[in-house]
Amino acid sequence: MRTARQLRIALTSLVRPLRTSLARPLWEWAKNCGAARPSREDFADLSRREAHARAVLENVAAGIITVNERGIIQSFNPAASRTFGFSAQEAIGNNVAMLMPAHHAQRHDGYMEREIRGDEPSVLGATREVRGMRRDGSLFPAEITVTSVDGYSDQRTFVSFVRDVTDQRSAQRKIQALNDYDNLTGLPNRNFFLKRLQRTMEVAGRGGFPMGLLILDLDSFKQINDSLGHAAGDAVLRDVASRLVESLRLGDGVARSGSVESETVARLGGDEFTILLSRIADPRDAAKVAHRLLAALSEPVVLNGQELYPEASIGIAAFPQDGEDAETLIRNADTAMHHAKNQGRSRFAFYSESMNLEAMKKLRLGSRLHGALERGEFLLNYQPLIDARSGALAGAEALLRWNDPDDGPISPMEFIPAAEESGAIVAIGEWVLRTACQQAREWTDAGFRSIRMAVNVSSHQLRQPMWVKTVERVLAETGLSSAQLELELTESAIVQHDEVTIENLRALDEMGIGLALDDFGTGYSSLSYLNSFPIDRVKIDRSFVMEIETESDEAPIAAAIIAMAKSLNLKLVGEGVETEIQAKFLRDRGCDELQGYLLSRPLPAQDFVRFLEKEKD
Question: What is the pTM of this model?
Fold first, then answer.
């Protein structure tokens, strides 16, 4: 039988490579046995504990490697073999550097001695991430925790717990991609962009060089999305993203040096993109980029045989003059973008302080607009529509006016766009419709001849699924005949061509309500859509009428518009008529009705009665 001292020596040889929680109770038991002789049961228990410890070492998920002071591997459990690809026989007796890439192995040389001497801060017990090298030379990320075992021999033993974290890092990268990249286009998203912008501004501020920020918004995306569906909209967005990236890649007007990427294209959300130019020699460089982007988007996207034009508006702000912090720079670039959009399609604009004043004015206007309807600040004027041949009254157009208590009369050119942007135009439009129909009914009840009442309708109203029901209700409540009502539509409403708009227009036509196309000739798609909608009448835009007396090209255009409308059996109204020469030109070419200051300004209802009385006589 072995003595207790011999038992301690045997147990020490067992646990020397690895000081585990399983072995420690056994070691304490042996150490405290004194000179007593262990029994057969003690040795049986020791064997069971030894077998259990070996089973744990062989089946634990983490790789466990023991190394002596010289870096020589002493033990290599099965998990380590699975992780590194070496068998225990191949690893034991070799330097642990065989498990490291070359640059790590060089730094590791002499590490054990430095650790023992205390020449550098100890990393024992801390979990670190390192690069491991497998038997085939491939590298992988690994988490490693190193502990030291001493007191059992004249050499310290280092125990490394190694875990392959390839799958975890891959999952983290996917999560990071979801957090920083747009799933649809693959571009950086708003979150990534804001971090990049902040970093770029810090670098630009330290270096004292300017940078540019472009915000790009598609001009017709909502119409594409509404009319063709979200799948088509997604396809357009992917195509636009690809064009933006490719356009910048091919460009030569922007510096490409610096400590951050010189150009970053990101999708902020919806149909809005941003382009970050981290270093520009001159603001004109940003203009070159904007030109290049607009040119790239001028080519059609062909989707299911249909050509779609993803034109855009771009706003440009420069650091530091247009904003010294990210929030201000973004806001000012966005202001410039909206200014460009208001100027027409496919344009860009640099930010200026005047734009900010204009934006603040619009914000104030929108604020004052809220509640104006309830406060009774709106009123309607009525402008006569005169038969071009007989001079008789043919109808009246209801025109909305706003008399603000503080600022006085405000132009419809100012408050109508603000009402459309805020969505207030729907409620205001219903009030206009009801008031105009009620007025027309009152004139009829007063014994005057029934005339056509024309009411302007915005695209926002036409896209409301319940708009037709609203018109039906108003006609029923006011008692006005549907034949007396005419709704004037803008070309922007027609060109959207979405399903709700088409269904509403057809339903209105079936009710016997007249439909007129206002400001005709100013849109690029006028002719192509005339046959697609139940239009009864077109109004020649005043810009063409104004030029009739000059030698400009507008007079032939006006004549061509009249001839074309006649060939389609449409009625013609010349609006903005101010002189007899204009009236004669339109009359001689077959224009049906005239409207303008030559005949009458818009009038309050009580003053309009004189036109009705003239007809009565």
Answer: 0.55
